[in-house]
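Form P-L/3: holo structure prediction, ligand zinc ion.
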Amino acid sequence: MRIGLISDIHANLEALEATLQSMNNDHVDEIFFLGDAVGYGASPNEVVGILKEIAAITLAGNHDYAALGLTDIAEFNEDAQESIIWTQKHLTQESRDYLRNFEILTTRDFFTLVHASPLEPLRWHYILTPQHAQIDFRYFHTQICLVGHSHSPMSFLMDPAGKIILSRESPIKLQEGYRYIINVGSVGQPRDGNPKACYAVYDEESRTIEIKRVSYNILKAQDKMFEAGIPDFLADRLMSGI
Ligand code: ZN
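OUTPUT (holo model):
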């Protein structure tokens, strides 16, 4: 069994299509989606339509919630606010209905899945340091917690003595006695300095989680955003990956 783990697509159809192609080559059996289908990009309905077909688990992100009017956008920066208003105008009723069914937090076997953090999932906290992770480890009870939200793939390991280590290594070999918080990166708007779409694959047999990167047609995704009147900054950052 191999599971594709995707997050933060942000209405980037070109990045999602390339990722699907790559997961297909990777012989992924099932796909878990960790939130933020929409916001920023120009293809929200197309992305939602694909998720409907492919995702076995769908979680809500803060942008999905904002697009539905379920979270206050006052905490979003100006560009993000503009893109949410654009998204609200363009989402079809069908897409809205589908997004509304996304879960906030769920568990499957030894995985807890949540968009931002298991600590107060609707407050959308970032897990960026071992200090953050230390608190979050207390708020889930499975061996592994899978998250997105920061758009930077990284993992936090808790060793049997309770020490927390930040790691950017891949693949991650899952070991007995250790616990993990793993950020699977962002399909549609990576921010770790690498503009390639990012996702992860869990392989049951080898008990590994591997981060994968895929090239996609960034220019095409950008053109659609420029044409849609979405703030230039949001299109420009796709090329730099920051
Ligand atoms: Zn996001």
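COMMENT: The first strand starts at residue 2 and ends at 6.
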